């Protein structure tokens, strides 16, 4: 699909997340919403299925999630009737843990390969097989310094249009939405590719 990014961002400036989701669905033939079931993921998933109940939901399950995250995921999949498509790494976590001696620290030379195996490779494989033309995601500009340089609408290196409806929302906005719609949340979350919440995992810097 071809979208004038500057015009799209100008059009969507000041719009609500729900209006941005509606715009994205209207301008897409094969939309996809991605999730990792981290805290506040209920918000983007609820908005997406309100606009398009059968939208494909991509979950790249690294195999290193907490028990609470897996329970949270199952609850949301059931409660929102998500059309979930799960991709997993080619190598099991148990095998990788033996070969790499557990999860490599971020300053370990193996960490880049670890991130490629558990997140980037399965994500790229999913995009190649599902072939979406638009990717809805939950990034917000207040999450990392890198994300402050982004915008609501951008393009991946493969030309997939990326739309971040929650880009300008704060945590308080998210809490209010959860309360208004009686949605669950789960803070017991672990991303093995990050050492700090302010560190990028690579999806939005490399794809």
UniProtKB/TrEMBL annotation:
<comment type="similarity">
    <text>Belongs to the PAPS reductase family. CysH subfamily.</text>
</comment>
<dbReference type="Pfam" id="PF01507">
    <property type="entry name" value="PAPS_reduct"/>
</dbReference>
<protein>
    <submittedName>
        <fullName>Phosphoadenylyl-sulfate reductase</fullName>
    </submittedName>
</protein>
<feature type="domain" description="Phosphoadenosine phosphosulphate reductase">
    <location>
        <begin position="34"/>
        <end position="185"/>
    </location>
</feature>
<comment type="pathway">
    <text>Sulfur metabolism; hydrogen sulfide biosynthesis; sulfite from sulfate.</text>
</comment>
<dbReference type="InterPro" id="IPR002500">
    <property type="entry name" value="PAPS_reduct_dom"/>
</dbReference>
<dbReference type="InterPro" id="IPR014729">
    <property type="entry name" value="Rossmann-like_a/b/a_fold"/>
</dbReference>
């Amino acid at each position: 699909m071809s979208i004038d990014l500057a015009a799209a961002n100008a059009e969507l400036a000041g719009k609500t997340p729900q209006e941005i989701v509606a715009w994205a669905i209207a301008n897409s033939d094969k939309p996809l919403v991605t999730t990792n079931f981290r805290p506040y993921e209920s918000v983007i998933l609820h908005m997406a299925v309100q606009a398009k109940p059968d939208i494909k939901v991509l979950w790249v399950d690294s195999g290193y999630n907490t028990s609470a995250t897996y329970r949270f995921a199952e609850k949301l999949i059931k409660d929102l009737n998500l059309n979930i498509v799960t991709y997993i790494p080619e190598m099991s976590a148990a095998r990788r843990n033996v070969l790499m001696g557990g999860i490599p620290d971020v300053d370990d030379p193996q960490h880049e390969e670890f991130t490629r195996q558990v997140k980037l490779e399965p994500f790229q494989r999913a995009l190649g097989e599902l072939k979406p033309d638009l990717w809805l995601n939950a990034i917000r500009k207040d999450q990392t310094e890198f994300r402050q340089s982004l915008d609501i609408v951008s393009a991946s290196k493969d030309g997939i249009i990326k739309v971040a409806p929650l880009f300008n929302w704060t945590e308080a906005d998210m809490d209010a939405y959860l309360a208004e719609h009686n949605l669950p949340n789960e803070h017991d979350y672990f991303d093995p590719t990050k050492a700090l919440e302010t560190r990028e995992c690579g999806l939005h810097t490399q794809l």
